[in-house]
Amino acid sequence: MRRGLGAALALYLALSVSCGLCAAAQEEVVTSPIIESLWPSGAPSAVGNEPADKPSLTIYLPPESKANGAAAVICPGGGYRHLAFDHEGHQVARWLISEGIAAFILKYRLAPRYRHPVPLQDAKRAVRTVRARAREWKIDANRIGILGFSAGGHLACTVGTHFDKGKPDAEDPIERVSCRPDFMVLIYGGLSLKPEYARWGAHEALFGDKPDLKLVETLSNETQVTDQTPPTFLAHTSEDEPVPAENSVLFYLALRKAGIPAEMHVYEKGKHGFGLAPDDPVLSTWPRLCIAWMRARGVLEKK
Predict the structure, then answer these.
(1) Which 3 state secondary structure label does DSSP give 24?
(2) Chain segment 122-132, per-residue pLDDT in tens
(3) Is the CATH number 3.20.20.70 carried by domain 45-296?
(4) Tens-place pLDDT, residues 82-97
(5) Could you tell me if residue 68 is left (phi over 0), alpha (psi between -120 and 50 degrees) or otherwise beta?
(6) Does residue 40 or residue 26 have the better pLDDT?
(7) Separation CA 268–CA 265 (nearest Å)
(8) Whole-angstrom distance, CA of residue 176 vs CA of residue 189
(9) Phi, psi (5° rounding) for residue 3?
(10) Cβ pair 62, 100 in contact under 8 A
(11) Residue 47's Cα: distance from chain center in Å?
């Protein structure tokens, strides 16, 4: 009897190890990203030919068995001066594909080499690219969102409040399609450029030493919400000092006034830049809440 149990246990362990290795190999295939240039022939307004002059998309596609047709462009934060490409990029992309959502991490051009409107130009191009190539990547062109953190939240939000329908007569087919996101996810985003709320040096990064005050007002995105602004999920913390929670609160109130579906979570504890917050049992609930919001809105429904 013991010998039979021992043999069965050995077989179970062998199968477990084998399945684990297969799963690991499959995961490696799924999460190995592809990097593609946003403008293969050279980006407009480029001042050189260095890596910093070449915006790109890092593409993570979920396995076909899990894919639901939704997609999101990810805008990592970094104050428009650098990109938090790991915890606000790759980690986020791996989370999204685990939920069946195709993920596209945007590497956009940064200060001091580039100022507004270049980062916005890159972000709009990213949404257009995903939509124009939706069939190729097995994506629903009507379920393409944008997700941003901190300054990347401002960039994502700027796309969602300053989008256009594309240029039907453009030679480039990508430029013919809309850059409007179908939904937004804004995590501790610096959404307002009002001085009392933009403590992270947004004005200098975006505009240099002498910002145009009218332009600053235009990019204070809570003032730009309309009935065409995409549905939005927001998360923030009360302890955030560089980007106060008022950034999300004011934007939420503007969405509510315009009749736009929105959900907001303001956590009591948590410093700025927590990403997915895997080590915090409270903050780490926001990704689950976000997925629940997407599911309730039909974003994750296979079609």
Answers:
(1) helix
(2) 999 999 999 99
(3) no
(4) 999 999 999 999 999 9
(5) alpha
(6) 40
(7) 10
(8) 29
(9) -65, -40
(10) yes
(11) 26
What residues pair up with 262 in beta bridges, in sequence order? 232
CB distance 36 to 59 below 8 Å = yes
- How far apart (Å, rounded) are the C-alpha atoms in residues 76 and 57? 12
Domain ranges of the chain: 45-296
Q: Is residue 20 over pLDDT 60?
A: no
Q: Which residue carries 């179970």 as its tokens?
A: 12
Q: What region does 60 belong to: left with phi over 0, alpha with psi -120 to 50, or beta?
A: beta
- 75 near 127, Cβ under 8 Å? no
Asked whether residue 224 carries a pLDDT value surpassing 50, the answer given is yes
Residue 253: is its pLDDT beyond 80? yes
Number of H helices, E strands in the chain: 8, 8
Query: What token pair was written down for 139?
Result: 């994506």
User: How, if at all, do strands 34-37 and 56-60 pair?
Assistant: antiparallel
Identify the residue whose tokens are 């950034």: 247
Farthest-apart Cα atoms in the chain, separation = 84
| DSSP state letter for 230 | P
Contact predicate 56/36, CB 8 Å: yes
Tell me the pLDDT band of 199, cut-offs 50, 70 and 90: confident
Contacts of 76 (CB under 8 A, 6+ apart): 83, 84, 85, 88, 89, 105, 106, 148, 149, 152
Banded pLDDT at 44 (limits 50, 70, 90): very high
Can you tell me the distance from the alpha carbon of 59 to that of 137, in angstroms, rounded to the nearest whole number?
10
Distant-in-sequence, close-in-space partners of 172: CB < 8 Å, separation ≥ 6: none
Report whether pLDDT(57) > 60.
yes
Q: Among 112, 48, 117, 55, which Cα is nearest to 79's? A: 112
Question: Minimal CA–CA distance to 157: which of 222, 96, 227, 83?
Answer: 222
Is the CB of residue 84 less than 8 Å from the CB of residue 78? yes
